[in-house]
């Protein structure tokens, strides 16, 4: 395959070449005896620039490409991949996959997706916006972001640096059912992390923006200033005594709560019976006013896609309706293990929208009254089997609806069942920088462990 050039947009022709490679791979697999096969061919392009204290630290261009193939001999499965697109390397990769399949045990759940579920139309989702920026321009932009933050307050005397990341991805998928699909998408990020110091010590914080189209970025200066404001606000942080109190998660942290729900509702955890949501479809999980919807076709959405990694068509679908778990999150394999049908989620979820309420963050603080505002989480103390939740946190103590002082070195604990059931409100301050779209989430009560 010819190299994808970066000085002009050749993505349409490159997608055609990737599709031809994927189709050739599945034909080759059939010729070697596979009863079914699928293949994906991809190219990822990137530019990453890092600056610190006004000086260039890193400039990196990447171009990763690869082919993966899965073959089935009846209900025996084998998979292999290669980063070499030379025809001989691809043929060897197919042979390796076939050899693996011939020596594995049969699994009745193995096989391609149901042909009736495959995508037949590919909507335009406005995901392709290459950013024509040179390394020199990216360096200047990174310096501008960092300088806006460093000059915002004299207490900011150091930096962990600013970064500019540019990304583009091309993918083609084909299988022996006759499905061929191609997708292209771009993703760009600006970020900066700053360090402030006063008599009480040092604090670090950051801010970033992530978009499909570079013209959608917040201004470089506003990203730097936001990082500076967050960093300075953490100066003088205290510890709390152990207590039970309401907890309010800001949007960029709240989406982790949604992420735990998505993991627990995913087929892999369910058929292994390693989730506290086993046999929970149709049962109340959240308050009755709570709605969570998957919307895969949002224009320029971070998780938008027309089909999943098996070619199954994606569609809008409720995950939580009136507080009740409406369905699980399934690809073909996990669906068969559970005696269900694929939900178009092979490879993961697409855009998840938590229906927002009417309150912004200040209104939610007033509604909470006295409690903890969480702005950052640390650690991985979450059990999907039991729902037990315990994570390190930093944020702010709130009294009478107003931020009183920053806090650190605390742990928040509870159980996800109780936490979800006791959601008080979801804010309208939705964070658009992720495929999980949620506002701030207020919980009625958690245990806060401190001194």
TrEMBL record:
<feature type="domain" description="Metalloprotease TldD/E central">
    <location>
        <begin position="129"/>
        <end position="235"/>
    </location>
</feature>
<dbReference type="InterPro" id="IPR002510">
    <property type="entry name" value="Metalloprtase-TldD/E_N"/>
</dbReference>
<dbReference type="Pfam" id="PF01523">
    <property type="entry name" value="PmbA_TldD_1st"/>
</dbReference>
<protein>
    <submittedName>
        <fullName>PmbA protein</fullName>
    </submittedName>
</protein>
<dbReference type="GO" id="GO:0006508">
    <property type="term" value="P:proteolysis"/>
</dbReference>
<comment type="similarity">
    <text>Belongs to the peptidase U62 family.</text>
</comment>
<dbReference type="InterPro" id="IPR047657">
    <property type="entry name" value="PmbA"/>
</dbReference>
<dbReference type="GO" id="GO:0008237">
    <property type="term" value="F:metallopeptidase activity"/>
</dbReference>
<feature type="domain" description="Metalloprotease TldD/E N-terminal">
    <location>
        <begin position="46"/>
        <end position="101"/>
    </location>
</feature>
<feature type="domain" description="Metalloprotease TldD/E C-terminal">
    <location>
        <begin position="243"/>
        <end position="450"/>
    </location>
</feature>
<dbReference type="Pfam" id="PF19290">
    <property type="entry name" value="PmbA_TldD_2nd"/>
</dbReference>
<dbReference type="InterPro" id="IPR036059">
    <property type="entry name" value="TldD/PmbA_sf"/>
</dbReference>
<dbReference type="GO" id="GO:0005829">
    <property type="term" value="C:cytosol"/>
</dbReference>
<dbReference type="Pfam" id="PF19289">
    <property type="entry name" value="PmbA_TldD_3rd"/>
</dbReference>
<dbReference type="InterPro" id="IPR035068">
    <property type="entry name" value="TldD/PmbA_N"/>
</dbReference>
<dbReference type="InterPro" id="IPR045570">
    <property type="entry name" value="Metalloprtase-TldD/E_cen_dom"/>
</dbReference>
<dbReference type="InterPro" id="IPR045569">
    <property type="entry name" value="Metalloprtase-TldD/E_C"/>
</dbReference>
